[in-house]
Amino acid sequence: MTTTQAFSTVRAIERGAWNDCFPSALEDWDYYVAVENAGIDDFQWRYLAVFEGGQLMAVAPAFITHYRLDTTVSGVGKRLTQRLEQLWPGALHLGLYAIGSPVAEQCHAGIASHVPASRRGALLAHLLEAARRDADEFGIGLLAVKDAPTRDQDWADSCKSAGLNSMPSLPTGLLPVPYGSVGEYLGSLGKSTRKDLRRKLRAPGPRVEWRRNIDDVLPDIMRLYEATLARADLQFERLPAGYFTEVLTQLEQRAVCVLYWVDEQLVAFNLILLDPHRMIDKFFAHDLAHSREHNLYFRSWLTNVDYCIEHNIAMYECGQAGYASKLRLGCEFQGNTLFFRHRNRLLNLVLKVVKVFIRPDRSDPAMAAALSET
Question: In terms of domain of life, where is this protein from (predicted)?
């Protein structure tokens, strides 16, 4: 007999059983414990599980929040929606129950290793049913699947069967690293980009420090984070200081914070997850006053590429932002899809119309180019 259950903490599911559903995932049980411990404002965590005969078959994280419909809009479109929000406060906000995580690049829904892959679609359907029931318990009409991989046919089929609408979400940047040296990597890029990066490398660079404890510099890290967040067009969540410290604590050797110093001043930091197979760039923040002189973004990028080469890490996963730069730097892009449905038919129809105008590629040509690759 198949049953489903929703929990308020990932600790309700045994660590080994959860991780068995996500082989080799860096954003694993420990990562979600870190997220819970961090106490991120405006989110309520849920964890969906499917059982058969008391045995765990499939799991997925989920969350509840108030979602602003123009979250993925930038440029002119963002200015228009901000004006609408001023004229009609709250018009763009809806209660949202979403499968996925606001602090993960893609939707994590996994099945236990003993379950045949042919059953995955049916188990995803059970997770969707569990999410709808749980959302109803909280009085939330809008159900979504956040950032399901576009090539995941099981998700597409399950969401279509459940009547969910779809729209492109922010693509994930990926840089395969088959190179023997940074010079070889630079040689793979376009002529103008290669020339520009080599010129930047000739200039004096910041001092680089790799850390797994940042307690002594946490105020400076949060200063850089807040300044970077204030400049960002696209941001779903605001991370507290506890997020950075908890990730480093819970993931131990699988997380590191790279610090960039000019004299005795911290001018940038980069939170990274890593294992022998890939590096995930979780967050980069920098001091704008020093960025141009010291080329902080590109220095950080090349530092990460160099680390991957030195440690034979084959894939550098570099997030969902900065598409113009990432196109120049040789990235590939993995498409993501947002599925959604409101239980109110009229609101669902309105959302189907609105999605035409708030697609992320409508206002960002670089993002449109990245999406076209997926």
Answer: Bacteria
Q: 3-class DSSP state for residue 342?
A: strand
pTM equals 0.90
Residue ranges of the domains in the chain?
Answer: 2-171+336-372, 173-333
Q: How far is CA 270 from CA 224, 260, 285, in A?
A: 11, 9, 7
DSSP, res 86: H
| Spatial separation of the C-alpha atoms in residues 166 and 333, rounded to whole Å | 19
Q: Report how far Cα 43 is from the mean position of its chain's Cα atoms.
A: 15
Alpha carbon distance 291, 179 (integer Å): 27
Beta bridge partners of 309: none
Is 2-171+336-372 CATH 3.40.630.30?
yes
List pLDDT tens digits, range 317-345.
Answer: 998 888 888 999 999 999 999 999 999 99
- CATH code of 173-333, in short, is 3.40.630.30
Per the CB < 8 A criterion, the answer to whether 97 and 142 are in contact is yes
